Amino acid sequence: DNKTPQFKRRVGHSEPHESVSELESHLGYWLRYISNHVSHTFQMKVEESGVTVSEWVIMREMFRIGYTSSTEIARHTGLTKSAVSKLVSRLEEKALLSRLLAEEDQRNHVLSLTKEGKLLVPLLADMADQNDAEFFEFLTDIEKDSLLTLLKKIVREKQLKPFAID
Prior knowledge:
Blueprint: H1 3-10, H2 27-47, H3 53-65, H4 70-77, H5 81-93, E1 97-101, E2 109-113, H6 115-136, H7 141-157
Antiparallel strand pairs: 1-2
């Protein structure tokens, strides 16, 4: 087959190009590197409590806003309605969330955390705080504030919206 040698030559089986930047020279690489480690460590801690990080996000939002709907959770978290529906079902199976028919419209549901769910949220929030402390404890308060300010500036300037997890 005479196409194979040409293909190999085109994909760069020759000398590397000096104009290609190093992976480690990209800020995005380092943001992802750190984020992966922070997130994975938190995921392992949260899952010991019987919930996933995505479920924690739903619970945290519900703790903040109280009685709510799947649509509101999706709006606040950036998750799709389908993803929220699956997470709500999982939390309901774990008896951390209850689903009640809305009085004004029997087709809609009102969601609320159960007593167990309300007790778990502060514990998971402490885990999140501890996880942040473990990863960023060596930074001074000024460095932490600067990093947070810069990250928020990127979000604001690029008009970034929550990215679906799970």
